[in-house]
Inverse folding.
């Protein structure tokens, strides 16, 4: 009998097991080095630090009186864009704490300095990326810290985050993610702390962080679901097959009551989470006046399809595109509305293949989670899909209609689930491969590739001219893209290019009144009064029909 690192081995199987233990210790990355690498990877958008206010930044910050001159209390009375919540055109996006950070920066500087805002966003992304490592460490445990590191590093450098980091309005997602992670960390402390005082304080901090996250962006409310599933699956080791067993009365009343007695702490925490959910949702809906926001068909065309079947089918295709942006973030665009994603209206559309593949993936996942497998890997996969799906629910059109087709910044938190699933899969493959170093090298190349793509994409967010022109390559059928390119060209004095792009926008969307008005003004300045008058009359007629229909 011999000893290897303290393990007593007496046969060949024990020696093989001990060797695997040695390899696992060897491949673990020390925590300080992990943090340094993640910090370096999260600097992928640092070149946007000297960028301008672009796109939505103008409406949410530059032209928003709540950020500069309005009374402080107006921040809590208006939506994120400075419109009264009671106004019928309000998007009902209530994010007062995010707006408050804009107001605070304006107060510190005395004027709007875009560089200050960008530096804060980059700093927040660094903090969120590092915090994600600690969140995954408590979910996966001590023996899977390298998986946590792989996932957090991938998250830090992922190009789909460029919009949230380089676009200043993306701070809502960054702040939401920050308090999202903190709520999970505090919930974990509540579970493992000793003493009622510390447990109560940790639980109160958790609920407070969830509330703050929600008032930074609506997605924050979904942290309640993450905390609940974390305790159910990771702490209590309850699998979906067990829930089916309880519902089908497979377990006796005595066994069920014995389980509940042993987990009284969990039941109490679930009660608190449920109570917090009801209270926070009640507050949120009361602020909205219990009215859903109204959007136009150009904002989210698929949600206006009369056929329920094809409406759902288009939703699934949009989910496919969101998933593809996380898997292969090549097509990145600041706006995906107005024809960027043509509707699926028949069964002869080749894009249905993508929907079928998504159904196969979801079906495989359901079969895996509801199987009799009770391994740790299955629990980690469940948590990965939870991170991927639950934070995305507010943007899924399931509960209410949203005002966009695809918004890359909404993938900021859900991408953590994709990164976790990718890291789990990578670890499983490397364990079955004779040379794990090959997978580590491939992973390092992927991080470098993502870092480079994020660097290039964040550079495109520095000026509106570059940003708008980059979108034409991705969404040439998007009338709004051409409109913004025309508007930018007109501001730079290039009226010829502006006229061409305005006409392209009107060709793609003949009812685009803003393009008509701007083109009419451009033609009027050129003294082409007859053509300008036709455009103005047509725009007024369309606006009248829209208002009184």
């Amino acid at each position: 009998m011999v000893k290897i690192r303290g393990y007593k081995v007496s046969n060949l199987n024990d020696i093989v097991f001990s060797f695997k233990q040695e390899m696992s210790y060897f491949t673990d990355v020390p925590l300080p080095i992990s943090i340094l690498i993640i910090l370096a990877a999260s600097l992928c958008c640092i070149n946007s630090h000297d960028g301008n206010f672009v796109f939505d930044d103008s409406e949410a910050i530059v032209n928003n009186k709540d950020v500069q001159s309005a009374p402080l209390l107006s921040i809590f009375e208006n939506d994120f864009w400075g419109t009264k919540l009671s106004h019928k055109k309000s998007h009902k996006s209530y994010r007062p704490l995010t707006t408050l950070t804009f107001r605070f920066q304006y107060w510190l500087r005395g004027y709007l300095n875009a560089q200050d805002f960008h530096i804060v966003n980059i700093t927040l992304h660094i903090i969120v990326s590092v915090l994600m490592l600690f969140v995954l460490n408590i979910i996966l445990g001590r023996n899977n810290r390298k998986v946590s590191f792989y996932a957090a590093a991938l998250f830090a450098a992922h190009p789909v985050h460029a919009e949230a980091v380089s676009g200043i309005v993306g701070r809502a997602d960054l702040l939401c993610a920050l308090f999202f992670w903190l709520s999970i960390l505090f919930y974990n402390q509540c579970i493992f702390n000793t003493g009622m005082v510390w447990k109560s304080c940790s639980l109160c901090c958790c609920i407070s962080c969830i509330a703050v996250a929600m008032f930074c962006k609506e997605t924050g409310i979904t942290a309640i679901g993450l905390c609940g599933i974390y305790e159910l699956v990771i702490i209590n080791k309850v699998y979906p097959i067990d829930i089916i067993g309880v519902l089908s009365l497979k377990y006796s009343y005595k066994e069920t009551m014995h389980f509940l007695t042993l987990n009284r702490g969990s039941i109490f925490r679930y009660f608190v989470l449920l109570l917090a959910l009801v209270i926070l949702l009640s507050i949120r809906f009361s602020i909205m006046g219990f009215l859903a926001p109204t959007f136009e068909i150009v904002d989210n065309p698929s949600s206006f399809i009369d056929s329920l079947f094809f409406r759902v089918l288009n939703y699934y295709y949009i989910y496919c595109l969101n998933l593809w942006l996380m898997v292969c973030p090549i097509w990145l665009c600041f706006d995906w509305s107005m024809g960027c994603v043509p509707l699926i209206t028949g069964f002869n559309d080749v894009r249905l293949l993508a929907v079928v593949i998504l159904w196969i993936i979801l079906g495989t996942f359901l079969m895996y989670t509801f199987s009799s497998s009770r391994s740790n890997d299955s629990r980690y996969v469940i948590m990965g899909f939870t991170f991927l799906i639950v934070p995305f629910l507010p943007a899924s059109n399931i509960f209410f209609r949203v005002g966009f087709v695809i918004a890359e910044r909404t993938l900021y938190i859900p991408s953590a689930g994709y990164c976790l699933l990718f890291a789990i899969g990578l670890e499983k493959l490397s364990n079955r491969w004779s040379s794990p170093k090959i997978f580590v090298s491939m992973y390092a190349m992927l991080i470098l590739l993502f870092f480079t793509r994020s660097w290039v994409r964040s550079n495109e967010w520095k000026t509106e001219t570059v940003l708008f022109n980059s979108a034409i390559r991705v969404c040439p059928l998007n009338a709004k893209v051409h409109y913004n390119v025309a508007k930018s060209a007109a501001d730079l004095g290039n009226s010829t290019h502006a006229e061409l792009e305005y006409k392209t926008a009107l060709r793609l969307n003949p009812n685009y009144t803003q393009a008509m008005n701007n083109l009419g003004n451009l033609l009027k300045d050129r003294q082409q009064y007859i053509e300008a008058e036709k455009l103005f009359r047509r725009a007024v007629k369309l606006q009248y029909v829209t208002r009184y229909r």
Summary: Residues 114-140 form the longest helix (27 residues). Strands lie at 2-4, 7-9.
